[in-house]
Design goal:
The complex is a heterodimer of chains A (213) and B (10). Chain A has 213 residues and is an all-alpha fold. Chain A is globular and about 55 Å long. Chain B is mostly loops and 10 residues long. In chain B, 30% of the residues are buried. The chains are: A mainly alpha (213), B little secondary structure (10). The interface between A and B is medium-sized, with 22 and 8 residues.
Chain lengths: 213, 10
């Protein structure tokens, strides 16, 4: 494993820990898109089915188990423990995820390494992950401002995607490893994050600094 | 046969 891959995985881990820590400290899930979090549960479960068929390493297995359990736990927190049902704000989370699911399914049927259930679901998880943050980003755009939680969370997720790019370069040149599906969907995802950070910078950071005396 | 690419990333 190279340093970029490790840093990428650690950023991903950090994003989830930030989310969990903030929810449990504030005892609130305000501002977090339930839809995005449910999409991540689907992403992790469909991608990590190979837990049952293939052993890669202890690190790989533990990380997969952590991602599945933490994503389910976060959905539980939003849906039951610190429910947002009484809040009007949930109406802001109205992105049509059906399109994301249908589009990812279609893409996975067309683009896959092998037409087997495991490979199709693996491809599906990549396509879905590439767009899973959209409901969260849409929610942020509607409210007009992001609190520290969502900003830090999305920043760490963006960092995770950014680190995976030099990781792919490294692996291509050092190991001859090139996973074209992972790279292509990963680039789409990174573009979404860069677009978000650009808009966020323009609207929030610049607006804030222009207000200062 | 094995698949072309190992899915060893997370």
């Amino acid at each position: 494993m190279n340093i970029f891959r490790i840093l990428g995985d650690l950023s991903h881990l950090t994003s989830i820990i930030i989310l969990l820590h903030t929810i449990n400290t504030n005892k609130s899930t305000t501002g977090i898109s339930l839809k995005t979090q449910i999409l991540y549960v689907i992403v992790f479960i469909t991608r990590y089915l190979d837990l049952f068929t293939k052993f890669i390493s202890v690190y790989n297995t533990l990380m997969k188990i952590f991602f599945i359990i933490s994503s389910v736990y976060i959905v539980y927190l939003i849906q039951y423990k610190y429910s947002q049902k009484h809040m009007v704000k949930q109406d802001l989370d109205n992105f049509k995820v059906e399109y994301l699911l249908a589009g990812s399914l279609l893409a996975s049927l067309i683009f896959n390494y092998k037409f087997t259930p495991l490979e199709i679901l693996w491809s599906f998880s990549l396509w879905l992950e590439s767009v899973a943050i959209l409901p969260q980003l849409m929610m942020l755009t509607r409210t007009g401002e992001a609190d520290m939680l969502t900003t830090n969370y999305i920043f760490c997720l963006g960092l995770y995607r950014a680190f995976y790019i030099p990781n792919w370069f490294y692996r291509y040149f050092a190991e001859g490893h090139f996973d074209k599906l992972a790279v292509f969907t990963g680039l789409i995802q990174t573009l979404l994050y860069s677009d978000f950070f650009y808009i966020y910078y323009k609207n929030v950071i610049q607006a804030r600094s222009s207000k200062l005396p | 046969s094995e698949s072309d690419v190992d899915h060893d990333e997370l």
